[in-house]
Inverse folding.
């Protein structure tokens, strides 16, 4: 039964290979990718329930036991993220099938799509640091292809920036990894956690910690290192931005949480650094979102702003704070994927995503507007909805540890998010604007058949239902987040599970 | 030998980062190549350099009796070389396409994505 750990990987690998056999046949690819995502969703749900009932599962690749071989570990944290990835991947795949032009899909698009999800699942499930690097490379190579497919002017430009900084991040991560191997002689994360305590050269350990922080920090777009994100995320089709915005920065955050709760623990310098960087990340993301008028750019900056919330929770480093950060992470993956899908829907409805040119959305499409309103309010965190509950834990932890700077930034970031959402609502939904003239190249929403319309709305609806569940079933999510935070804070159970030690 | 390799690693890092910060996208590629080779050498060094000591346990014993050279860094470098080769190949094609579409190799003119549209 231990093979269940790599099922999510096997499903995506299988489907990406199958899709290559229908390279030219787009219809075949579209159908197969949706089937693949449904199966991967089923596997992810099964894995999550299995882990929830039976606790952490491990699989030694090739039978080489830890700490010598590569270990796949599925604890509750990893299983939760695999589940969220599967949900987002499923919703985005439905949206991709209808919204991305065939000219783009002709270049093995869906195959690369499955490779990206494979890389994400691998990064969540691996227990080996070098293996994590390899999964990161799979993720970035797939994302390079997805971001540049189509070859438009600003896409290629965004891709060059995205490439340069993500490459830097990988190399810095690899540098830290090399130094860490030189110090401890192991790459297994659980084994590192034990051995790093015995290293005499503490300053070199700190240097490794900072290198890891910078490497993962670039990937998760924190304060001085986020410039690649708003320069590139608005260039590809919305469906791709949705997958990137929902999951790619979060995999950086996942790596930060994993490494800094398991390997570099009780490091006051890193914790203070994280809090300071979280403060500036929230501020710069909020200001960036305020001054932009393009909907997708606003969302890019909001991603940065909300990464700061999570990073601050990790910086405080108490169980409540980590639980809050995890809850926020769960909420964020759902809602960030969804708002990019919404920007794609708005583009289809009105032909552009610039707030100055948009208008009349509420008058023309009242039902869709209500759906979008639910998502936008979840993003802000209006009380019964999902963004509200994690902030309770974050505020509580902030007050308990007297981190008033962080609390100030958190309040400010939430307030700015509210202002931006009301600005979007006033400009795009209420304002009067000229209606779009129909052009030949662009098929408007009203001209689509009902099934096609449903394909645009259903993915947003699916993610909105999950957001609503996170909001109204907050008790369950909070319990889950606390349980994960407890496991992360007391990492002995993880180490025991990996190294098969008897208690 | 270690000191020479350490100096070379430092030079490769410095040169790589310097080239990545230049304005030309062709120099960006050169920087990428130098930087990734610097990292590979660093990993190689982190396994310590031993001449002619295979990592093989003699038949008569269960543990290593002699010092041995660590095979893992070499496996890591092999993986890293393959990955960075793929990345560089992609980067060269990407830069060629970008140059064809944008008619420039100056990164300062790569600014249409920052415009508010």
């Amino acid at each position: 039964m231990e093979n269940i750990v790599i099922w999510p990987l096997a499903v995506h690998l299988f489907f990406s290979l199958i899709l290559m056999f229908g390279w030219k046949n787009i219809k075949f690819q579209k159908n197969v990718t949706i089937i693949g995502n449904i199966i991967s969703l089923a596997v992810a749900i099964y894995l999550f329930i299995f882990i929830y009932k039976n606790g952490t599962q491990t699989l030694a690749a090739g039978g080489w036991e830890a700490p010598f071989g590569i270990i796949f570990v599925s604890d509750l944290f990893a299983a939760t993220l695999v589940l969220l990835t599967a949900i987002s991947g499923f919703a985005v795949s439905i949206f991709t099938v209808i919204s991305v032009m065939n000219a783009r899909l002709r270049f093995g698009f869906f195959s690369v799509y499955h490779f990206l999800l494979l890389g994400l699942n691998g990064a969540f499930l691996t227990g080996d640091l070098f293996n994590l690097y390899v999964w990161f490379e799979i993720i970035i190579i797939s994302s390079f292809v997805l971001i540049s497919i189509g070859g438009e002017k600003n896409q290629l430009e965004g891709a060059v920036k995205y490439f340069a900084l993500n490459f830097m991040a990988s190399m810095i991560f690899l540098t830290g990894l090399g130094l860490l191997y030189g110090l401890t002689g192991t790459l297994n994360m659980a084994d590192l956690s034990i051995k790093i305590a015995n290293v005499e050269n503490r300053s070199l350990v700190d240097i490794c910690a900072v290198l890891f922080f910078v490497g993962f920090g670039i990937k998760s777009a924190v304060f001085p290192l986020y410039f690649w994100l708003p320069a590139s995320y608005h260039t590809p089709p919305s469906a791709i931005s949705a997958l990137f915005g929902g999951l790619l920065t979060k995999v950086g955050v996942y790596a930060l949480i994993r490494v800094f709760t398991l390997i570099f623990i009780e490091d006051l310098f890193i914790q203070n650094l994280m809090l300071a960087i979280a403060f500036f990340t929230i501020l710069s993301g909020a200001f960036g979102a305020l001054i932009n008028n393009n909907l997708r750019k606003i969302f890019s900056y909001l991603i940065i702003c909300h990464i700061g919330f999570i990073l601050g929770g990790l910086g405080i480093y108490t169980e409540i704070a980590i639980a809050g950060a995890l809850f926020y992470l769960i909420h964020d993956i759902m809602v960030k994927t969804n708002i990019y899908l919404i920007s794609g829907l708005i583009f289809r409805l009105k032909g552009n995503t610039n707030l100055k040119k948009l208008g009349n959305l509420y008058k023309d499409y009242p039902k869709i507007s209500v759906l979008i309103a639910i998502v936008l309010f979840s993003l802000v965190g209006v009380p019964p909805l999902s963004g509200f509950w994690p902030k309770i834990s974050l505020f509580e932890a902030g007050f308990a540890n007297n981190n008033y700077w962080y609390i100030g930034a958190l309040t400010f970031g939430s307030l700015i998010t509210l202002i931006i959402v009301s600005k979007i609502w006033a400009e795009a939904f209420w304002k009067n604007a000229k209606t779009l003239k129909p052009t030949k190249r662009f098929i408007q929403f009203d001209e689509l058949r009902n099934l096609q319309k449903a394909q645009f709305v259903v993915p947003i609806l699916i993610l909105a239902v999950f957001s609503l569940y996170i909001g109204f079933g907050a008790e369950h999510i909070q319990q889950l987040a606390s349980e994960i935070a407890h496991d992360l804070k007391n990492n002995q159970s993880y180490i025991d599970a990996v190294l098969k030690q008897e208690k | 030998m270690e000191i020479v390799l350490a100096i070379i690693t430092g030079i490769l890092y410095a040169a790589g980062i310097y080239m990545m910060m230049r304005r030309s996208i062709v120099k960006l590629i050169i920087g990428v190549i130098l930087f990734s080779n610097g990292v590979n050498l660093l990993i190689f060094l982190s396994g310590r350099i031993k001449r002619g000591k295979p990592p093989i346990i003699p038949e008569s014993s269960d543990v290593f009796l002699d010092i041995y050279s660590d095979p893992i860094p070499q496996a890591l470098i092999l993986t890293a070389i393959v990955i960075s080769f793929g990345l560089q190949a992609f980067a060269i094609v990407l830069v060629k396409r970008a140059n064809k579409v944008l008619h420039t190799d100056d990164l300062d003119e790569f600014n249409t994505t920052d415009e508010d549209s």
The mean pLDDT of chain B is 87. The domain at 2-51+70-107 of chain B is CATH 1.10.287.3510 (Helix Hairpins).
